[in-house]
Amino acid sequence: MASTTQTDDDGAFSAEQYFATQPPSPSLDQDIKKVREFAQRQLREGRRVVLVTSGGTTVPLELNVVRFLDNFSAGTRGATSAEYFLKAGYAVIFMHRQFSLQPFSRHYSHSTHPFLDFLELDSAETEPSNVAGSDATRISVKPSERKQLIEVLAAYKAVQKAGTLHTLTFVTVNDYLWLLRAVAQELSVLGRSSMYYLAAAVSDFFLPRQRMAEHKIQSGKGSLHIEMDQVPKILKSLVDEWTREGFVVSFKLETDTSILIPKARAALARYGHQVVIGNDLHTRKYQVVFVSPASSHRRSSSQKADGGEESYIESWLRIDPASYPQKEIEEDIVKELVQLHDSWISMQ
Ligand code: PAZ
User: Are residues 202 and 255 in the same domain?
Assistant: First the structure.
């Protein structure tokens, strides 16, 4: 816990204090200039925009970083959802952990479906070792892979042509926080047409720059003790300050399912956003729970219709595990969110 810095009531850094003391990455201004151009174009062209965050953040332990804390997230949820949002007509800002999965190319991940395995050298009589470097050698795609490749490639090319996908990368939790704030501030021009789909697995703790070792931490002095500070409650600032009208969807991951719904409700009560999607680490590809205020689409938890306690509605989305990966739960998640976003827009 921070001992010498201004903190929130629960001991976390306040967002204000965080941004006053932790410097942004040198590329932030350039990144945001491009986001501004993208947002302005989508505004002119009358498209809704969704910010999809995806993948895990790191927490560096040294300034010249050799060691860092990381988490499990591969970016499957974010990359898959981004594709379904594009299909639904949204423009997507895909803010993801460097080298994590991305829309379209995710189908050909080096670990699960390496593309070299489904390419073939054309002439059957030619020894692969003899054709290296020959311009005459043709390459083809295995017949069993063609249908899917054509579909993925066609969708990818169409999105490129329409200019509806903009990609940003982060590595550390600090990169993530600075980017999220700046992107949200840029997207606020879109008002209710913007959605925030916060699927990244963001560290709850970080080591302030002022307390990091400059060089690689040396062994030989016994065990290592590191005291981390809490990352500020950024959703509060997002909802109350950076984007007052955006439709905000956060994710809650737990490994103890009994606390999933109470934690999701607590997040809604605390931050006053629209939806929390709860998921369990082991079943996240097959089931999620949507939790939203009963008096749905209200901006702030303090605005109760009857002045009383807010109540919440839970609804589960499930797919048959046997149908995966042909069927992806993100298709249903996005479909549901597009409907909720429609209602949110029509409420203004
Ligand atoms: O990236 P992935 O597909 O492996 O996992 C997705 C997820 C579990 C990180 C995401 O659905 C999620 O719950 N994100 C928020 C995690 C949290 O901070 O609680």
Answer: no
